[in-house]
Amino acid sequence: xxxxxxxxxxxxxxxAPLAALAAGGSLKLDRAPDRSTDPAALQNGAKLFVNxxxxxxxxxYVRYNRLQDIGLTEQQIKDNLxxxxxxxxxxxxxxxxxxxAKEFFGAWPPDLSLIARARxxxxxxxxxxxxxYLRGFYRDEARPTGWNNIAFESVGMPHVLWELQxxxxxxxxxxxxxxxxxxxxxxxYDDAVGDLVAFMVWMAEPQAQFRKQLGVAVLxxxxxxxxVAYAMKRTFWKDIH
Length: 241
Description:
single chain; mainly alpha; Cytochrome Bc1 Complex, Chain D, domain 2; 2 domains; two-stranded antiparallel sheet; about 50% helix; globular
């Protein structure tokens, strides 16, 4: 009897990961475009982030002066992107207090500095999740905000980009259709979201491109060093055997 019980426990442990994988794979994430090396896309993403996201969500691990890394001048940052700070060395915070945030939203909106890394999973990268999420809002009158999301069921955040995208509705086939167009066409909106996601990916790791370039340089150096070392080894040992 005890052996049978152990066998059931073992079977449950073996199949638990498969069950979790099946449960977590219900949503297919859309692939986000890679614009990590496109300064124009990153700058447009920074503008969209500051004008739409930074009203409620902070990015306290990033300082305004780091935006110079994506090709913006200090004066451009001060004139166009600094609305909640006085000095360019300050973090990208928000002016709303925690008390007001709790009263308005019921909770403090999460900081978005590392959201692109935090949302990475077996279903896709954090960029894929954000790209799907920001394009996945639809009208749902049952929700307090009037909005829901295919990537985040019962989401508490309203669709802050609805004027750009328009209003989507969920059909009987569980597919989204555009019921009311926004200021941008679907392609233009997807491009704008791609820029915004690219900036959020950069924001989560500003040194990512430098790290990749350094890694390539190190691999090239090791390859050249191996050839030289092997040639020296053959020269030194040719008369030994």
